[in-house]
From TrEMBL:
Highest rank taxon of the organism: Bacteria
Residue ranges annotated for the DUF218 domain, each copy included: 39-171
Family annotation (InterPro entries): Cell_Envelope_Assoc, DUF218, Rossmann-like_a/b/a_fold
Protein name: YdcF family protein
Native source species: Laceyella putida
Any Pfam family matching the protein: DUF218
Length: 216
């Protein structure tokens, strides 16, 4: 049985809130250490903020190529603004980036994946990993911790992996590292991310946590 996107959240104390923030947002990964990265890896999503963030990274000149991931999953919860029917997410993101001035020849994509693990596994098959020394990835800000651990599991240890988070809205409010615990839906989605990190780490799908949060 899968983990709900918005699970019930137990009462959280301040130490647990701080630990959840550190594990799920991993804000230090957004402090970029390189002027340019070999690849921008875009995790599939129906949220417009994702492709807007990817376009921003390209136009800032900080990435050389772009790998876009994401298929179509019939029972997925999509952004309210999604109007693209059963079109795979990667195709929508690709076409949006072309509209916003990103050259098609700089992009690769896979359009069969239905979750983050498949995003990584299917996406990495499309590129020469041995030719990369650095990777910047686009994901929802509150999913950075899980996406980083997924990439880290399947990429060489010496590769630089850093984040270019997308500030994602839920119920018309952005989910932020400093305010998520004050909004019920945001508490649920962040707690759900933590549960996935724990569960997927134990399954061997992602880099596991060194230590779980006491009481959770």
């Amino acid at each position: 049985m899968g983990i709900p996107k918005f699970p019930d959240v137990p009462p959280l104390n301040s130490a647990q809130v701080q630990a959840l923030t550190e594990i799920t947002f991993m804000r230090h990964l957004a402090k970029r250490t390189l002027p340019q990265y070999d690849l921008l890896f875009v995790f599939g999503s129906s949220h417009p903020e994702i492709w807007a963030t990817a376009a921003r990274a390209y136009h800032q000149g900080i990435v050389k190529r772009i790998m876009i991931t994401g298929g179509y999953k019939a029972n997925a919860i999509r952004h309210a603004g999604w109007t693209y029917g059963t079109t795979p997410e990667a195709q929508v993101i690709r076409d949006k980036l072309v509209e916003w001035g990103v050259p098609l020849h700089l992009m690769d994509w896979e359009d069969q994946s239905t979750n983050s693990l498949e995003n990584v596994l299917f996406g990495l098959r499309k590129i020469n990993v041995n030719g990369l020394s650095s990777l910047l990835f686009v994901s929802k800000s509150f999913a950075v911790g899980r996406q980083y651990r997924t990439l880290k599991k399947y990429l060489p240890d010496e590769m630089v992996i850093e984040a270019y988070p997308s500030l994602t809205t839920i119920n018309k409010l952005p989910v932020t590292a400093w305010g998520w615990s004050q909004v019920a839906a945001h508490r649920a989605v962040v707690y759900g991310e933590y549960l996935r990190i724990v569960a997927y780490g134990k399954r061997g799908h992602i880099l596991p946590l060194a230590k779980e949060i006491p009481g959770l």
